[in-house]
Design goal:
Blueprint lengths: L4 H9 L7 E4 L18 E4 L3 E4 L22 E7 L2 H9 L5 E4 L3 E3 L4 E2 L14 H7 L3 E4 L3 E3 L5 E3 L1 E2 L14 E3 L3 E6 L5 E7 L5 H6 L5 E3 L3
Parallel strand pairs: 1-2, 1-5, 5-8, 6-11, 8-12, 14-15
Antiparallel strand pairs: 2-3, 3-4, 6-7, 9-10, 12-13, 13-14
Protein backbone atom coordinates (compact mmCIF):
# COMPACT_ATOMS: atom_id res chain seq x y z
CA UNK A 1 0.00 0.00 0.00
CA UNK A 2 1.46 3.37 -0.99
CA UNK A 3 2.27 5.92 1.71
CA UNK A 4 -0.09 8.85 2.28
CA UNK A 5 1.15 12.43 2.19
CA UNK A 6 1.33 12.39 5.97
CA UNK A 7 3.36 9.16 6.01
CA UNK A 8 5.78 10.59 3.44
CA UNK A 9 6.25 13.66 5.63
CA UNK A 10 6.75 11.49 8.69
CA UNK A 11 9.44 9.50 6.84
CA UNK A 12 11.14 12.73 5.77
CA UNK A 13 11.22 13.86 9.40
CA UNK A 14 13.54 10.93 10.13
CA UNK A 15 16.23 12.81 8.19
CA UNK A 16 16.22 15.61 10.77
CA UNK A 17 18.99 15.82 13.35
CA UNK A 18 19.22 17.67 16.63
CA UNK A 19 20.49 21.21 16.10
CA UNK A 20 19.68 21.32 12.37
CA UNK A 21 18.57 24.47 10.55
CA UNK A 22 15.99 23.29 8.01
CA UNK A 23 14.07 24.83 5.12
CA UNK A 24 10.75 23.23 4.11
CA UNK A 25 9.40 23.70 0.58
CA UNK A 26 5.81 24.12 -0.52
CA UNK A 27 3.38 21.16 -0.52
CA UNK A 28 4.07 17.88 1.26
CA UNK A 29 7.34 19.16 2.82
CA UNK A 30 5.42 21.67 4.96
CA UNK A 31 3.80 18.72 6.77
CA UNK A 32 7.21 17.66 8.12
CA UNK A 33 6.91 20.30 10.85
CA UNK A 34 4.18 18.18 12.46
CA UNK A 35 6.51 15.18 12.85
CA UNK A 36 9.63 16.63 14.49
CA UNK A 37 10.49 14.11 17.25
CA UNK A 38 9.82 15.19 20.83
CA UNK A 39 12.94 16.56 22.47
CA UNK A 40 14.69 17.32 19.17
CA UNK A 41 15.78 20.92 18.62
CA UNK A 42 15.25 21.88 14.97
CA UNK A 43 15.02 25.45 13.67
CA UNK A 44 12.77 25.81 10.62
CA UNK A 45 13.74 28.66 8.30
CA UNK A 46 11.52 30.39 5.74
CA UNK A 47 12.66 32.54 2.81
CA UNK A 48 10.26 35.32 3.78
CA UNK A 49 12.31 36.05 6.90
CA UNK A 50 11.30 33.77 9.76
CA UNK A 51 13.47 31.40 11.77
CA UNK A 52 11.87 29.03 14.26
CA UNK A 53 8.50 27.98 12.85
CA UNK A 54 6.15 25.82 14.85
CA UNK A 55 3.53 23.36 13.55
CA UNK A 56 0.40 24.39 11.69
CA UNK A 57 -2.17 26.14 13.93
CA UNK A 58 -5.41 24.52 14.98
CA UNK A 59 -8.54 25.70 13.18
CA UNK A 60 -9.69 28.98 14.63
CA UNK A 61 -6.27 29.84 16.06
CA UNK A 62 -4.68 31.09 12.84
CA UNK A 63 -2.81 34.41 12.80
CA UNK A 64 -2.93 35.91 9.26
CA UNK A 65 0.35 37.74 9.94
CA UNK A 66 2.22 34.49 10.59
CA UNK A 67 2.84 32.74 7.26
CA UNK A 68 5.55 30.68 5.61
CA UNK A 69 7.00 31.21 2.12
CA UNK A 70 4.02 29.34 0.66
CA UNK A 71 1.59 31.76 2.39
CA UNK A 72 0.28 29.07 4.74
CA UNK A 73 -0.54 30.12 8.29
CA UNK A 74 1.93 28.77 10.85
CA UNK A 75 2.76 29.18 14.54
CA UNK A 76 5.74 30.76 16.26
CA UNK A 77 7.94 29.43 19.05
CA UNK A 78 9.63 31.10 22.04
CA UNK A 79 12.84 31.04 19.97
CA UNK A 80 11.31 32.53 16.80
CA UNK A 81 13.13 35.46 15.18
CA UNK A 82 12.22 37.70 12.25
CA UNK A 83 14.44 39.43 9.71
CA UNK A 84 14.48 40.68 6.12
CA UNK A 85 14.15 38.38 3.13
CA UNK A 86 17.66 39.43 2.06
CA UNK A 87 19.08 38.18 5.37
CA UNK A 88 17.09 34.98 4.94
CA UNK A 89 18.63 34.34 1.53
CA UNK A 90 22.01 35.24 2.99
CA UNK A 91 21.60 32.30 5.36
CA UNK A 92 20.78 30.02 2.42
CA UNK A 93 23.52 31.24 0.08
CA UNK A 94 26.08 31.26 2.87
CA UNK A 95 25.67 27.53 3.51
CA UNK A 96 24.10 27.92 6.95
CA UNK A 97 21.08 25.64 6.30
CA UNK A 98 21.75 21.96 7.00
CA UNK A 99 18.82 20.46 5.14
CA UNK A 100 16.16 21.46 2.64
CA UNK A 101 13.10 19.30 2.04
CA UNK A 102 11.47 20.17 -1.29
CA UNK A 103 8.75 19.01 -3.64
CA UNK A 104 9.49 18.20 -7.30
CA UNK A 105 7.98 17.61 -10.71
CA UNK A 106 10.90 15.46 -11.85
CA UNK A 107 14.17 14.07 -10.48
CA UNK A 108 16.86 12.47 -12.62
CA UNK A 109 19.02 9.52 -11.61
CA UNK A 110 22.08 11.80 -11.36
CA UNK A 111 20.39 14.17 -8.90
CA UNK A 112 19.11 16.80 -11.34
CA UNK A 113 15.95 18.53 -10.11
CA UNK A 114 13.03 20.15 -11.96
CA UNK A 115 10.50 21.69 -9.59
CA UNK A 116 9.52 25.16 -10.75
CA UNK A 117 7.69 25.26 -14.09
CA UNK A 118 6.01 23.42 -16.93
CA UNK A 119 6.57 25.03 -20.35
CA UNK A 120 3.47 26.83 -21.61
CA UNK A 121 2.05 27.42 -18.14
CA UNK A 122 2.34 30.86 -16.57
CA UNK A 123 4.44 30.98 -13.41
CA UNK A 124 5.44 33.87 -11.16
CA UNK A 125 9.06 32.76 -10.92
CA UNK A 126 11.35 30.18 -9.42
CA UNK A 127 11.12 31.58 -5.89
CA UNK A 128 13.96 30.44 -3.64
CA UNK A 129 14.38 26.96 -5.10
CA UNK A 130 17.55 27.70 -7.10
CA UNK A 131 19.24 29.27 -4.08
CA UNK A 132 18.18 26.42 -1.81
CA UNK A 133 19.56 23.61 -3.97
CA UNK A 134 22.81 25.51 -4.54
CA UNK A 135 23.45 26.69 -0.98
CA UNK A 136 22.00 24.04 1.32
CA UNK A 137 24.21 21.21 2.55
CA UNK A 138 21.71 18.40 1.85
CA UNK A 139 18.56 18.23 -0.30
CA UNK A 140 15.72 15.74 0.23
CA UNK A 141 12.84 15.62 -2.26
CA UNK A 142 9.36 14.45 -1.22
CA UNK A 143 6.91 13.79 -4.06
CA UNK A 144 4.43 11.32 -5.52
CA UNK A 145 6.14 8.61 -7.54
CA UNK A 146 4.19 9.25 -10.74
CA UNK A 147 2.29 12.13 -12.33
CA UNK A 148 -1.40 11.54 -13.08
CA UNK A 149 -2.33 12.79 -16.54
CA UNK A 150 -5.71 14.17 -17.60
CA UNK A 151 -6.44 11.06 -19.68
CA UNK A 152 -5.97 8.84 -16.63
CA UNK A 153 -2.52 7.59 -17.58
CA UNK A 154 0.56 7.88 -15.39
CA UNK A 155 4.00 9.31 -16.18
CA UNK A 156 7.14 8.51 -14.18
CA UNK A 157 8.74 11.36 -12.23
CA UNK A 158 12.02 9.55 -11.53
CA UNK A 159 13.74 9.79 -14.91
CA UNK A 160 16.94 9.00 -16.74
CA UNK A 161 17.09 12.73 -17.53
CA UNK A 162 14.61 15.51 -16.71
CA UNK A 163 12.76 17.02 -19.68
CA UNK A 164 11.40 20.03 -17.77
CA UNK A 165 13.46 23.18 -17.09
CA UNK A 166 15.98 22.44 -14.36
CA UNK A 167 16.17 24.03 -10.95
CA UNK A 168 19.64 22.59 -10.37
CA UNK A 169 22.03 19.90 -11.59
CA UNK A 170 23.47 17.17 -9.35
CA UNK A 171 21.71 18.57 -6.26
CA UNK A 172 19.36 15.89 -4.84
CA UNK A 173 20.65 13.53 -2.12
CA UNK A 174 17.46 11.59 -1.33
CA UNK A 175 13.99 11.10 -2.83
CA UNK A 176 11.01 9.98 -0.75
CA UNK A 177 7.94 8.99 -2.76
CA UNK A 178 4.68 7.28 -1.88
CA UNK A 179 6.32 3.98 -2.97
CA UNK A 180 9.72 4.14 -1.27
CA UNK A 181 12.99 5.89 -0.50
CA UNK A 182 15.96 6.41 -2.83
CA UNK A 183 19.44 7.79 -2.20
CA UNK A 184 21.40 9.49 -4.98
CA UNK A 185 25.17 9.72 -5.29
CA UNK A 186 24.88 13.18 -6.84
CA UNK A 187 28.61 13.90 -7.07
CA UNK A 188 29.91 10.43 -7.86
CA UNK A 189 29.00 7.50 -10.08
CA UNK A 190 27.00 5.48 -7.57
CA UNK A 191 23.71 6.47 -9.19
CA UNK A 192 20.32 5.98 -7.58
CA UNK A 193 19.67 3.33 -4.92
CA UNK A 194 16.33 2.08 -3.58
CA UNK A 195 16.83 1.63 0.18
CA UNK A 196 13.29 1.33 1.54
CA UNK A 197 9.82 0.32 0.34
CA UNK A 198 6.45 1.58 1.51
CA UNK A 199 4.24 -0.96 3.25
CA UNK A 200 3.14 -3.81 0.93
CA UNK A 201 4.87 -2.20 -2.09
CA UNK A 202 7.15 -4.52 -4.08
CA UNK A 203 10.39 -3.79 -5.87
CA UNK A 204 8.79 -4.95 -9.12
CA UNK A 205 6.02 -2.35 -8.71
CA UNK A 206 8.60 0.39 -8.17
CA UNK A 207 10.59 -0.66 -11.24
CA UNK A 208 7.45 -0.68 -13.38
CA UNK A 209 6.76 2.95 -12.45
CA UNK A 210 10.33 4.26 -12.63
CA UNK A 211 12.22 5.30 -15.75
CA UNK A 212 15.47 6.02 -13.93
CA UNK A 213 18.03 3.26 -13.53
CA UNK A 214 18.58 2.24 -9.92
CA UNK A 215 20.01 -0.53 -7.77
CA UNK A 216 18.21 -1.94 -4.73
CA UNK A 217 19.72 -2.28 -1.28
CA UNK A 218 16.77 -3.19 0.91
CA UNK A 219 16.61 -4.19 4.53
Amino acid sequence: MAWTREQMAERAAKELRDGFYVNLGIGIPTLVSNYIPDGMSVQLQSENGMLGMGPFPYEGEEDPDLINAGKQTITELPTTSYFSSSDSFGMVRGGHINLSILGAMQVAQNGDLANWMIPGKMVKGMGGAMDLVAGVKRVVVVMEHVARNKDGSESPKLLTACDLPLTGTHVVDMVITDLGVFTIDKKGDGGMTLIELADSVTEDEVRAKTQAAFTARLG
